[in-house]
Amino acid sequence: MKLGEIPRLHPHLRFQWEPAQEAYVLLYPEGMVKLNGSAGEILAVCNGERSVAEIIGLLTEKFPEAPDIETDIIDFLVTAHTNQWLVSD
């Protein structure tokens, strides 16, 4: 993903906190994907308005102690895009 891209959730998915799973999940017609904490934090800020660079800045500020956070965010965004969880402009 390029820093200027603006990722947003694929329109056929729903992202939400699932109390029974105690985790964020992606819901789709055939099922559900349970996300780990990092993935949930990243997807929570992919609102179709923030660029990849803005997402990195926001999460770096929120989690200043996290090592290599920029690489981890980009890696996850690439994976989410490959899995068609995210689309981008």
Structural commentary:
By secondary structure, the protein is α+β, with helices and mostly antiparallel strands. It has one domain (7-88): Orthogonal Bundle (Arc Repressor Mutant, subunit A), CATH 1.10.10. It is 37% helix and 24% strand. It contains three helices and five strands; from the N terminus they run ββββαααβ. The protein has a three-stranded antiparallel β-sheet, with helices on one face. A hairpin with a 2-residue loop joins strand 3 and strand 4 (31-34). The N and C termini lie close together (11 Å). The relative contact order is 0.25.
What is the CATH architecture annotation?
Orthogonal Bundle
- The CATH homologous superfamily is termed Coenzyme PQQ synthesis protein D (PqqD)
Structural class category: alpha+beta
What is the succession of H and E elements? EEEEHHHE
Biggest beta sheet summary: 3 strands, antiparallel
Question: Which band does the percent of strand residues land in?
Answer: 15-25%
| Assembly annotation | single chain
CATH class label? Mainly Alpha
Number of strands: 5
Low-confidence sequence ranges: none
Please tell me what the overall shape is: globular
How far apart lie the N and C ends?
11 Å
| Helical residue percent band | 25-40%
Total number of helical segments? Answer: 3
Q: What characteristics describe this protein?
A:
Arc Repressor Mutant, subunit A; two-stranded antiparallel sheet; globular
Q: What does the secondary structure layout of this molecule look like, with pairings?
A:
Layout: E1 7-9, E2 14-18, E3 23-28, E4 31-34, H1 37-44, H2 52-62, H3 69-82, E5 86-88
Helix pairs in contact: 2-3
